Amino acid sequence: MNPSVYSRYRTAFVEALAQALGVPASEIDSQVKPADPAHGDLSFPTFPLAKAQKKAPPAIAASLAQSVKVPGLEVVAAGPYVNAKFAQMPFTAEVIDTARSQGVRYGGGDQGAGKAVVIDYSSPNIAKPIAFHHIRSTMIGHSVANLHRALGYKVEGINYLGDWGKQFGLVAVGFQEYGVPERRKDMAHLVEVYVKANKRAEAEPAFDERARDFFRRMEAGESEALALWKEFRETSVRDFERIYARLGIQFEHMEGESFYQGKMEPVIDEIARKPGVKESQGATIVDLPYAENEPPVLLKKNDGSTLYATRDLAAAIDRHERFHFEKSLYVVATDQALHFRQLFRVLEAMGREWSKRMVHVNFGRVHGMSTRKGNVVLLNDVLDEAKTRALEKVQENIQAGKIQTNNAEELAEQIGLGAIVFGDLKNRRTTDYTFDWEDVLAFEGHSGPYLQYAHARTCNILRRGGGAPASYDASLLTLPEEQAVLRVIARLPVVVQEAADQAEPSFVARWLLDLAAEFSRYYTLGNQDRTKRVILEGNEPLKAARLALTDATRVALAAGLALLGIATPENM
Fold it and tell me: What's the CA gap between 364 and 133, in Å, rounded?
């Protein structure tokens, strides 16, 4: 795939500046930034050059602006800055044609071609339902995977299930005490059993020991224990897959901690050789220097059972051997920061150089989540309630003549799910945020429904205008508001790269809000001045040009929403 329009002009500007200064382009590349829109599109500060050239920055900028010539750019000095502005042509035609020709793939590239990226995300525990807080790992991970796919990476998305450990022992012994045999394949019943068993284990050490003993039997390979574990695991996975299908998520690999059962001794032996292990109160720990009050990395407990750190070490080595990844990302809450710092330290101490390509993609918490009944709810309950609330608004708007749809239920599902997903992804992933129903389901403001409406509006305009034109004259798009829309569209490929590099879907979310706002500003011009209407009857050339810009906006909105995993209804 060819470089984006924005990147191509930026590269040409950097190279022209470098040639004029007699330095390598790499030396000044990081100094070229987006300009204040009032002054252009790209900007280069000359302050760092003042000492070497013994001239005032404004004088340096004036001289550079005279010598830098780039086709398609208007280069001028503004005080100490050299600014470049995209010339109306051919920039206008290039942006529209690129977006329309690439369709939903617009914004992507081939930077990752031939490279693999492993993304570990969602990762619920078996015999427990997917709770609402899993929305963060699930949707951040899904979007990060989409971003990398868009850039040509081979994505190995792994749902690393918590399917091994004492918690399963609790489910097993809990079922012996509280289970109804006829409901053994009922996920909701397994949850009831787990809650009762966990509460009892906290109050009765003997019951807790029974759970630990069951897990030891699993690790020892006892057939009866493993058969029950397998049955309950399959029940959980079926329930998980139903929710993932609803969210449009598919994993390349559905694995779990159990995948590494029987594969950990070689890893422990390797650690024993380098960096070394030692005994502590009967447990086996990694022999590393630890900070004051830092808990050690445990490989085995005093009863000989393994821990998730042991399994994560085995998993990391296995994933590198299987996928030879360019990078391996763990989309896991900030609470686990110490675990991942220690995991990477142990791997580095083992001499695994590729550990430097492993990243903990951490995220903050969601606060304030409750249903109308005031109870903390599960993810599927939240999705159901989002659809119910969205359906109420859809039906109100249908009655008011504001929405036309043949399937209110389907539209409500798209709006409800889009509201929940965007309500999460618009936030910087490392920050906590407070969930609010009115905020996430608003049809105006920074919300998923607002963006879906913006996309539907472009579809409606195109329908009323007779469809997207096959040909048009880009030079007619001279309004400042038209050029502002084009500049936002042109930025998407750059935003996608930055969002992938930083595993930060909120960059795409904020870009979508910018584009929707700029297009709304442009479209409403016609309310005050009929000559600025998009569907301008009596002037077919200008109408065609404006419909082409509308079509490019539609494509860009659809591409951005798809990266976040949000549906794009054509009627709202």
Answer: 10
